[in-house]
Amino acid sequence: MRPIALVAPFFMDNTLRYVQALAELPNVRAAIISQDPAEKLPKALRQRIAAHYRVDNCLDGHSLARAAKAISGFIGPLEGLLGVLEQLQLPVAQARDLAGIPGMSLAVARNFRDKTQMKNVLRQAGLPCARHSRIESTDDLHRFVDAVGYPIIVKPIDGLGSRGTYRIRNAAELTAAAAALAPSVSNPTQAEEFVMGRENTFETVTIRGQHVWHSGTRYLPGPLEVLENPWIQYCVLLPRETDDPEFSSFLPVNTAALSALGMVTGLSHMEWFVRPDNTPVISEVGARPPGVNIMALNAISHEIDMVRAWVKLMVNEEFDPPTRKYASGCAFFRGQGHGSKVVAIHGLDQAQAEVGHLVVDRSLPTPGQPRQPGYEGEGWAIVRHESTEVVYDALRKLVSYVRIEVG
Ligand SMILES: Nc1ncnc2c1ncn2[C@@H]1O[C@H](COP(=O)(O)OP(=O)(O)OP(=O)(O)O)[C@@H](O)[C@H]1O
Ligand SMILES: [Mg+2]
Prior knowledge:
alpha+beta; 407 residues; binds magnesium ion; Dna Ligase, domain 1; Rossmann fold; 36% helix; D-amino Acid Aminotransferase, Chain A, domain 1; binds adenosine-5'-triphosphate
């Protein structure tokens, strides 16, 4: 039995799926480190957990290391310390280093989490990514624009959810951004040349440094365009074709990037652009399961439980999903109007009549629910079909018919 701990800060539904998958792996003694008390775990699940350790802050690597050492004392030296969320990647890696647990080190985790360092590594490896600079003063910002021209992108070094990501098109916007960001040595910002193109993802499973599986999605359209236009409802499409030339031709770039960054075993989520001349540009990559329902899309396209598959990959270094049988896609419904609460949902009848037979899962808001700030909006629907075109058409219909009114 292998002692493995999962950092699960709060016992939300999605987090509990990972806890359950770990607890049910037959060769594992599962431990949980959380901020929530053990009593909050469903009873049946609690009984399957060999050890639980509560910390005040799961984002603190030292606390996680103390917890990991204590757990090792109860159930034997930990052979793995896992975390799913992007924000956990650095503290979990730091705790592995401090407690001598195998897995991704802090140095490697930084390559995946620090946007400046990531692009330095990629450019040194000769891989295509935007020209960029770490900005530590207003002068740095001006020098960067002088070098690359408008437009540029500014964003947090360790951003997520596209929060704080802005496109700057001219001198007036630059002045406003410099004032708002107040960049300094202690408050650095990432600046990048603006890359024109379609935005895709590339999910890869690597085992002991070898590529074993990949799958890619298309963003319709890219997150920044969605954020800049409050009326756009965003979709993610997972095509059925496993030999789509756009994705196949990107594989060598993806493999070289993961190797340069130091990926050994894990699932990674890369975002990348295809420029109008069809050349690829890497945007960024996380060493963790993807968000925006891409886990769910892969699950229904391949007919597997992706959460269990990820846990098995991380613990046993095994991953062997069946061939993809379906295209799938997720339409995100985003509140329209002014106000802070959901008032009504329109267009469901028409959506149901035309594409309801393709919908395999959905989450709709209830009136009164607070408005969400991000591009994922208040609700979503997932569709599946053998044909990529049918899924694409269904997504288009869903985002044109369904409208969440906020007021
Ligand atoms: N250099 C760039 N050129 C063009 N668009 C960009 C560039 N960098 C970022 N973007 C746009 O901004 C979005 C957010 O940027 P990025 O992915 O780096 O931040 P993030 O906070 O990690 O976002 P998320 O968690 O949504 O992936 C990207 O998905 C893309 O649409
Ligand atoms: Mg991103």
